[in-house]
Amino acid sequence: MAQKGVLLDQDQFCCSVCLDLLKEPVTTACGHSYCRSCIEGCWDQDVLKGVNSCPQCRQTFTPRPALRKNNKLAETVEKLKKTGLQAAPPPALCYAGTGDVACDFCTGSRKQKALMSCLACLASYCDTHLQPHYEFPAFKKHKLVKATTQLQEKICSHHDKLLEVYCRTDQQCICYQCTMDEHKGHDTVSPAAERTEKQRQLVMSQQKVQQRFQEREKELKELQQAVESLKHSAQAAMEDSDQIFTQLICSIERRRSEVKKLIRAQEKAQVSQAERLLEQLKQEIAELRKRSTELEQLSHTEDHIHFLQSYQSLSSISVSSDLPSIVVRPLQYFGDVSKTVSELRDKLKYFLKGEWTKISTTVNIVDVVLPPEPKTREQLLQSVRVAGLR
């Protein structure tokens, strides 16, 4: 239990700068104790300002006081070390990283992350060094804001004072001294009052942006629907045209097959007739050749009786003249085929004209006529809407 009590009280033996057990403790006139090296390091950093202050209560000392070792406190710390008890580990340190605001009062190479910035002190504080602003009345009137690196932006560049006034005439933040100099007689208000007005305008701007956003979203959906409608119409037209051309090709192939069969049938009939005539002609030529030979022999005989008797029998056989004359005229023989082909050509032209009308009607469904070079998005959107309704 005794050890537990020591642990509960050992925070008073820690330096508020390095957060470790006091080493060669010294006490300032305001009653706060620090490691000698820690407090002297703080004052060495402020040597250019010519002001030495307590890191906790900010009490200033002019001139720089001579620090003396607090022997009683040093003995107590030594006793703690001899008993084997160590100071309770300080709270988990949160060091400032990239993009963080570092505490202006932490010493050493690594500084803790600042939690708040004081607009009166123009400094940023970690949790430890921020405590005086909560404990001492002199600091409670200081305005604390979330830690920021933009403290200098809140200071007037002409007078090095806090910007606490807003000039509506020049539309900028100024300090109180500015209202007496270059901004004298201007329309000035507090930043809070101007923020209220600007906040109202901001709400109106947000409403306009939201309305514009909804309008554009609606236009986007309509445009997407029109594009999808155009795609579906074009696809339907492609499928209809493919079907029409497929039927057309099948019909032409069928007609071609029929014409080929007709031509072959008439060719077969005409060739058969011609072959019969050729056979008859060959037989007649052979008969005529035989009679010519007999007559030739009869003309050279010296037997008058034989000549007279043979002549009578040979001359009684006359040449038949009832054989048809054959003239090769393809158009005459295949006249029916030519007529059929001509009729088929006329029918095909009529059929193609009708089918082409269907195809043209189908294609016109997806014919998008946009005005040349639309000047505005509204004109383009209206054109696509009209095309989508076709």
Shape, please? Answer: rod-shaped
DSSP strand tally: 10
Order of helices and strands: HEEHEEHEEHHEEEEHHHHH
Helix content class: 40-55%
Tally of contiguous helical segments: 10
Which spans have pLDDT < 50 for at least 5 consecutive residues? 1-8, 318-333, 365-371
Query: What gyration radius follows from the Cα positions, in whole Å?
Result: 61 Å
Q: What's the story with the biggest beta sheet?
A: 3 strands, antiparallel
User: Which structural class do you get from the secondary structure elements?
Assistant: mainly alpha
User: Mean pLDDT across all residues, rounded?
Assistant: 77
How much strand content do the residues show?
5-15%
Span of the ends, CA to CA: 92 Å
Strand order of the largest sheet: 6-5-7
Q: Would you write up a description of this structure?
A:
The chain is 54% helix and 7% strand. The N terminus is likely disordered. It contains ten helices and ten strands. Helix 6 packs antiparallel against helix 7 and helix 6 packs antiparallel against helix 9. It is mostly helical and 390 residues long. GO terms for molecular function: zinc ion binding. Pfam families: TRIM_CC (PF25600), zf-B_box (PF00643), zf-RING_UBOX (PF13445).
Task: Please name the defining characteristics of this protein.
three-stranded antiparallel beta sheet; 390 residues; 54% helix; 10 helices; mainly alpha; disordered N terminus
